Amino acid sequence: MKTLYTSTIFLFLFVFGPFANAQCSEIYFYRTNGFQSKRAIVLYQNGTQLATINAGERFKAVTCSTEALEFVVRTSENDMVPSKVNFTPEAGKNYYLKVNCAVGVEIASIKIQDAIKGKRDVNNGNKFISPTKSLSIEGSTDAQTPNPLSSTLVGETNSKSFERTQVIDNFKFEIVDIIKAGEMLTLEYKITNLAADDRRLETCANLIYFYDDLGNLSFAKQVCLANSCSSPPNWIKTLNVPEKYGCHSSVNSNTIMPSGIPLNGKIVIQDINKRAVKFVRGTVWFKSEVSYKVNYANIEFPKVVDPENANKRNFGDQSIELLAASREDNVTYIHFQHSNQNREAYSSKIQSGEVYDNLGNKHIVDGLSLVSKDKRVNYNRYAKGWDFVVAPNGSSDMFAIVDKIPATATQIRRITLTFDGFTLSWDNIDIGGSSSSQPGPEYIPYSEFETKVRNNQDVIGTKVILKNIYFSTGSDEILKNSHPQLNQLADLLILNGGLKVEVSGHTDNVGDDVSNMLLSQKRADAIKYYLIGKSVSPTRVLSIGKGENEPISDNSTDSGKQENRRVEIQVVK
């Protein structure tokens, strides 16, 4: 019968998943360290000994059972008058069972405490000599609550494969995004308290660590729970066995977790070896009523270099593309475009930059301009960098300025920009003429086009290159990170119902003419039907594929081919 009951519990968890735990109950057994006999008390369930409870100890069990439970306490097996409690757990309700042994009488007692008082007692560390220990009872969720009477950890997950979502002690920990930028990796979480009551959760940066596939140890540089963030000092990196040092107060992050409402969390790991491709294992420490670890294995790093564009670097919902390098007099301008696909503005800074030319010379980045080459940004000496902001769901042109690259240098072999916490590099960039991405007077930037449309200014005949449009390689499938700009364009066309546009697709000269023409037509059609799907009238959107027939740059260079692969619109009415 017990085997059948256990199988039923596991079947329930399998069918309904982690959210089934929202219907479980937490049961606390506690004995304060006050004025009472120091004699040990033994806890039983159905004749089976569960634990020995000494003064100043507390235990916790999690059960999904809705059948009646009975617990008995004795000071010895020969007690003639054992004390017991009976109750039927209500789904999602917590229970607090206080155990006592009065001085002189030497008889154990157990009673169900009022929930408010019981919770206050259990959370008062001054009344106990040790952290809360986990306890397995009949009908408990054994998969989440092993029987660690020799340990203070409620749950310690172990896995040889990467588990993005884990549930421990009625907390659901879900990694929703992994962002790699240079030597920095960010794990973004959604953490949900599945219990019926609000609970405090804390974590500690110096108790979070990972090993990469090259054998290097990395610690968390920053950890956040909701709006509570902390960053450890540099000496944290020197620790070899971080658990023994405990959680230092300066690196603790904590918040109240409301019942059933997911909150954001974030762990930032820096100084990752550039040759590493994954974390083979790692540990994240959390604490609520008790402490527990969430263990991970084989967290593969996302690719920073875009698979379709070798000069584009992706990190989460951000991307930076190197468009071109150009020389004017003795000054070289290296043109980047930073795209922000987030609904909030992205702010950061470039701390420094290094450039190596094909003659073997090393140079430093002397300045930064935003929007256009002549709008230089002042160097923030206090923050040690050039600050910049990219608008929500927008993009910004940036120009790294390098003085005195020799006129005989024809290529930048490598440029490395150091941002706030990470670096990005690009190789083998030809130094050409103009770095402007607008190839003729009929072309205007998207930001100018948007402003004119909103102000009802004349835009007939103008062309706009849609720089934030991405397709699957060799396909007309529009990638998700293209949606923000297409949604903005649809809104503009709806705002001005008199505009009629032609969407044109363009390719470089790699491959045969026919294939390029077909692909460019299919991609232009895909953009057209996306806009129609956003309530733009079909009569207001034309589509045409032009293949490699209308280049705007030199196809003999990689940067030129990159500019020629594009989607643009022209206002025809």
TrEMBL record:
Residues 1-22 form the signal peptide. Its main location: membrane. Residues 137-156, 544-568 are annotated as: Disordered. It is found in: Cell outer membrane. It comes from the Bacteria. One of its GO terms (cellular component) is cell outer membrane. Residues 461-573 form the OmpA-like domain. Keywords: Cell outer membrane, Membrane, Signal. This is OmpA family protein. PANTHER family: LIPOPROTEIN YIAD-RELATED (PTHR30329:SF21), STATOR ELEMENT OF FLAGELLAR MOTOR COMPLEX (PTHR30329). Gene3D superfamilies: OmpA-like domain. It holds the Pfam family OmpA.
